[in-house]
Amino acid sequence: MNKKILDLAIPNIISNLSIPMLGIVDMALMGHLESDAYIGAIALGSLIFNFIYWSLGFLRMGTSGFTAQARGRRDLPETILVFSRAAFIAIIMSLLLLLLQGPIESLSFLVLKGETQVEELAMTYFRIRVWAAPAALGQFALLGFFLGMQNARLPMVVLVLTNVINIICNYTFVMKLGMGSDGVALGTVIAQYSGLFIAIFFFRKYFNKLFKYWSLKATIQWEKLKQFLLINSDIFIRTMCLVVVFSIFTARSASVDLHSEGEETILAVNSILMQFFMFFSFLIDGFAHASEALTGKFIGAGDRRSLERTIQLLFLWGGGISLFFTLVYLLGGDAIFRALTNNPEVIANAKPYFFWVVMIPVVSFTAFLWDGIFIGATAGPEMRNVMLLSTLVVFFPAYILAGRFMGNHGLWLAFILFMITRGVTMQLLATKAVYKKIS
């Protein structure tokens, strides 16, 4: 069972690590141009697409859970039908994004204000990159299907190759052809379609035999489509809560209210500190994705013993990883700080908040793992309710009350309580949301 977990987790970890490399390269390319407006344009434009794709991430998560359960039942016809329903929704959502790109652009830049030059560059970036939407959403459906079929290596290869192609294109367009932020947008479009074609190639190579079970009538069967949409709508609400929490965290970090503490660098401080959370999430998320695939498989197969054993081992791995990161942060935190920034003021102002960072791995790993388990169990309503509770009943009151009296410490306390609540409440709901799904 440990081998099964690692076979799924390690490729997902590699996939996760390849993603921030692209952002680092893009920022480095923009940083070598004559104007810092290009950096701002990439930051604004990427924020819009991060919001869109994060919101539509249910396409991948819902697909992996339903596919894994169908595979566990050895219901091969249903595996291809789950994928075809996800692909159908991806096509509809892509068309809507392309048709509504004008209103989306207007609304986005009404909310995201920047200097005139930055906004103009970001708008052009948006108008180019939006044409990658069909490829990006198509990949969501394909990668979710691969993971649900217990294959994490194919998503890893697709994502790594996509990001390598993206880096090569961006470097060529920016440094060789002098296209600036437009070159980054065009490189992303080319890379996304390249990734889609690579994923389709793998799909045809390894799963083409499943097409004999496909039919349009079964794909658009209303009851099945309704079930898929309902679960995905719950995952969408859950994801929106996450977006709100992280958005408020960033907005509060930039708030002038914190300047009364004499910490004008607080946005930079919290941005640096949040990288410690991101480092940890790249690794633990690999095990969360493994839990999606294995939970769905064993629920579909009705194998409660294997499910319980898998969850036990996942939490042993998660606990060990969280303790490892805690020790690394305790012993090497200062060196990590200096690797992320050489600004002495930011480092000095960050140190009083460092104990919150040390707490993050231990208090948050359960939330990551239960998230994956609930996705594999297609426990959409429970995930939605947990996130609404954690956001509205815990994070907001803690943020308002503690933030008023504790400043930035209150903001971090609210975030820590938010993560703890997610883990604890999913633990309490596990019997209903996961174990009772086995007949």
What secondary-structure arrangement, pairings included, does this model have?
Elements (H helix, E strand, L loop, with lengths): L1 H30 L5 H19 L2 H15 L3 H24 L1 H11 L4 H14 L3 H16 L4 H24 L4 H27 L8 H4 L2 H32 L12 H36 L2 H37 L3 H7 L3 H23 L3 H27 L1 H26 L6
Helix pairs in contact: 1-8, 1-12, 2-6, 3-4, 3-7, 3-11, 3-12, 4-7, 6-9, 7-9, 8-9, 11-16, 12-13, 12-14, 12-15, 13-15, 15-17, 16-17
Question: What are the defining features of this structure?
Answer:
mainly alpha, 439 residues, 2 domains, 85% helix
What is the radius of gyration computed over CA atoms, rounded to a whole number of angstroms? 22 Å
First-last Cα distance: 22 Å
Q: Provide a count of the helices.
A: 17
Low-confidence stretches: 256-264
Summary?
The chain is mostly helical and 439 residues long.
Describe this entry's structure for a reader.
α3 (58-72) packs antiparallel against α4, α3 (58-72) packs parallel to α7 and α6 (116-129) packs parallel to α9 (181-207). The chain has 2 domains: 1-220, no CATH class; 234-439, no CATH class. The protein has 17 helices and no strands. The protein has helices at 2-31, 37-55, 58-72, 76-99, 101-111, 116-129, 133-148, 153-176, 181-207, 216-219, 222-253, 266-301, 304-340, 344-350, 354-376, 380-406, 408-433. Helix content is 85%, strand content 0%. It is globular. It is mainly α and 439 residues long. The chain starts with a helix and ends in a 6-residue tail after the last helix.
